[in-house]
Amino acid sequence: MNRIIKFGEDVEGYNIPVLNEREIRASAGILFLVMFMSLMLIIFKQNFVPIKYGITMFLTDFIIRVFVNPKYSPTLIIGRLIVRNQVPEYVGARQKKFAWIIGIVLAVIMFIFLVVVNAYSPITGIICLICLIFLFFESAFGICLGCKFYPMFFKEKAQFCPGEVCDVKSKHDIQKTSKVQLLIVLGLIAYMFLTAFLFNDNFSKKPYDLFGIANSMQSK
């Protein structure tokens, strides 16, 4: 039983239980895709069925992670299969557990409102947005936003953070951003605003079927 109920893996060279950040990011990407597509169906189709399944899956997956063992989490297993050929990047398990507890709290609130009560409100919308932001930052940037709150509740310093962000160190030259690069980013933003101002009417036109495939399918 002790081998089943456990949080984190014992890896040689690490004095605390750790997890593989690569499979965590893959799992976050999977959950982000599920939740994002469900949200799009709500916005454009007023279809709440997929989000109810998505929340149920999200909550169940995180309960398994926190209260049983992350190695038995379905999405983490899928993530492990996806990144199985990549060298593991080990991160401390403690701060991840804290972050996932936050995920459980948010998922429980969403589950009660949307699945049990079967009602939506600004509360569910805000929580859904928060979950999407957390998942996106984890999957796209490798930044665990929930882990950022760990030092606020625990005196001990988080160890083995993704990208070694827990350790104070000087940036390499390749990591530094020059003023010219920042101006390029601002230039892109200005360029997109200018494009929207000049070409919004053209962009708003619905594209026509170049080869008439849709029309031919409808005629049948």
In short:
With 220 residues, the protein is mainly α. The protein has eight helices and two strands, in the order βαααβααααα.
| Adjacency order of strands in the biggest sheet | 1-2
Name the poorly predicted regions: none
Strands, total number: 2
Number of helices: 8
Q: Decide which structural class fits the backbone.
A: mainly alpha
Radius of gyration: 22 Å
What's the average pLDDT? Answer: 90
Helix content class: 55-70%
Largest sheet composition: 2 strands, antiparallel
3D shape:
globular
β content, as a range? under 5%
Task: Compute the separation of the termini in Å.
Answer: 61 Å
- What's the helix-strand series? EHHHEHHHHH
Structure report:
The chain has 220 residues and is an all-alpha fold. It has a domain of 150 residues. The chain has eight helices and two strands; from the N terminus they run E-H-H-H-E-H-H-H-H-H. The radius of gyration is 22 Å and the shape is globular.
Key words describing this protein structure:
8 helices; globular; 220 residues; 2 strands; mainly alpha
